[in-house]
Amino acid sequence: MMTRYLSELNIGETSIIAGFDTSRVKDKEFAADLEDRLLEIGFEEGLSIEVLHQGPIGGDPIAVKIGTMTIALRKMEAAAIILGEQQ
Amino acid sequence: MTALRVALIGAPNSGKSSLFNTLTGSHQKVANYPGVTVERRSGTMTTEGGHEVKILDLPGIYSLNDRSLDEKVSREIITGVHEMEKQPEVLVCVINASNIRVHLRLVLELKTLGLPMIVALNMHDLAARDGIEIDVSRLSEELGLPVITTIAVRRSGVEALKEFLDRDASAYTKPMGIKSDTSTRALQKEAGRITSLVQVSEGGHHKMTRILDSVALHPVIGPILFFVILFFMFQAVFSWAETPMDLIEGSFVALGELIGENLPDNWLRSFIQDGLIAGVGSVLVFLPQIIILFLFILTLEASGYMARAAFIMDKLMAKVGLNGRAFIPLLSSFACAIPGIMATRTIANHRDRITTIMIAPLMTCSARLPVYTLMIAAFIPNKPVLGYFGLQGVVFFTLYLAGIISAIIVAAVMKKTITKGTLQPFLMELPKYQMPRLNHVLLELWQRVRAFLRRAGTIILYAAIALWALTLYPFAPKDATEPDIYYSFAGMIGRALQPIFAPLGFNWEISIALVPGMAAREVAVSALGTVYALQGDEDQVAQSLSTVLQNSWPLPTALAFLAWYIYAPQCLATLATARRETNSWRWTAFMAGYLFALAYLVAMIVNISAKALMA
Ligand SMILES: Nc1nc2c(ncn2[C@@H]2O[C@H](COP(=O)(O)OP(=O)(O)O)[C@@H](O)[C@H]2O)c(=O)[nH]1
Ligand SMILES: [Mg+2]
Questions:
Q1: Predicted confidence (pLDDT) per residue in B55-82, tens digit
Q2: Which of B421, B336, B128, B226 is nearest to A27 (CA)?
Q3: Which letter, b or e, does each residue of B100-109 get, where b requires 16 or more Cβ atoms within 10 Å of its Cβ?
Q4: Cβ density class B513-547: b for 16+ within 10 Å, e for less
Q5: Contact B12/B60 with Cβ under 8 angstroms?
Q6: Which SS3 state, helix, strand or coil, does residue B127 take?
Q7: Set of chain B residues whose Cβ sits within 8 Å of the Cβ of A27
Q8: What is the ipTM metric for this complex?
Q9: Which residues of chain A are within 8 Å of residue B211 when distances are taken between CB atoms?
Q10: Prediction pTM value
Q11: Which pLDDT tens digit goes with each residue over B566-604?
């Protein structure tokens, strides 16, 4: 099966965070720090994640639920988050 | 005995400032760290036992990897390498009880500093509401640190912390057990382990937040709701602010007259009447708009809605390289650039914030309306265009649009040049909704008002007095043929500038009027009245001015004058506020410089092309 990324998840779908791949982000300077930032705000391997909302234009940014938190991020950032199989 | 130095530290939005406000009350001072825009908020508190405590509210951090200026200041202070601020003796790490997993990572990282630290397990009320239960003594044991539950927005919610701070510096012990591996992952793992031990009940996602978000963040209803809120906010600013503004203006005029009647006619009377009182009035007249706008902005912020507004507008703002947070400040600038510029404080990134401040004056503020109204009424016939629209309305709309489009272009150019930098992530937590607390909102409002009066107000007052002197001295000769202002310093400056303004089609009357017109945009109307030596009150001047201008200005000049006012920073209060908010004369000079340059360029193009078209 193809690897899925958070940016590809639809509203209402849940999955598990499997890891990060910041090389998918075009802006290298931005990518350099992205993984740490994602970790620091609460993205962590093994946590379950659900897409709650999408922005009005082009479905961007998105709002996701992790635990009791709601986190907003742009699709470009979500593209660096690898999803795993739902147990 | 010296006061204990305590610093509040923690992630953004964990409640540091609320805790700071509740602990220090009105005993606080807001300033800037030298050379940077970062605000330094310090205050004092006296404990029951009579101990003096100095409290510092530090900018929020996610970790010790600083990325912004704010974060750098925080890191430098708590690690003891800041050039001005002494290292605090005790840290109070404020964490959000609803989400300890993430926040504990920061606690563990800060523990490596080896400073005595107290953990304030804040937002305890919200965590309890969502059914989250934490074994506090177990948490304290695991961390090896005192943990105190707090509700920062309630006085009673911080008593325990106050009691804990009621001791000597020597009574605090340094934390033990510093882990060797301090990578984000290792700390995160440890935080996860502790969380699973101490979190008795995980609680659920706040139901109300989920329901409200299904409306507020709905792709169709969300933006509609947002614009309804904005419409209401604007309606309120325009309809509620008008009466108090008129009142303030009226009472200062009356006060001036009262003093005028009771003092001999000399320079002192003129100074008090036209310099001092008019100057103070020109500062206070901004207060109604500032208060009403901030009442809305702070309430929206405290309820948790502001982050949703940023979510809705982010895609649009990202197109000019800005963040969704820039939208509300820019929109506020349509009422007045001053509260708009002050509202940029919610933009975390320094460069984005500067860019937003720089383009804020391009939004057509309400002070331009008297100028636009005068010129359009005098020069633009109200004939129908395209069947439905009046030409006057179309010109009005064009002026607004020109400002917006220019702002987009300027922002895009700035982001590619002087405020260029690494792209900033939008990444943020959407806080849970809650009822805003009135006392919290009022305290924040008071801080904004005080900042405006103290820092911007004084500059505005001095400038108003300087302009008074420039327009009064030296006096006109006995056999004067021109109005008095012609012979004053303002007149001299205006006449000297006239050749420079000639390509714009501006005559000497306009050049002179622009000098006192630096005070505020709407002053241009009365300044032109003075130059054309018109008598009567404001409305009468505007009336007769319309006729005078029609007869003495060619149409290209009038159009160029309108174009000038789209850009020209003819508002000292805006420049003073920009100076305060950027904490930099260079950025202030840049703002004034680029706006004058654009004003000149566009007005010249308008004048020359209008002449060519009419030839
Ligand atoms: N209900 C509740 N709200 C809080 C508490 N502490 C802070 N808040 C709210 O959380 C928001 C962020 O707080 P603030 O003090 O600005 O956070 P800072 O970024 O850490 O300075 C504000 O709207 C506060 O009113 C608390 O203990 N309980
Ligand atoms: Mg704060």
A1: 999 999 999 988 878 889 999 999 999 9
A2: B421
A3: bbbbbbbbbb
A4: bbbbbbbbbbbbbbbbbbbbebeeeeeebbeebbe
A5: yes
A6: helix
A7: 422-423
A8: 0.95
A9: none
A10: 0.85
A11: 999 999 889 999 998 898 999 999 999 999 999 999 999
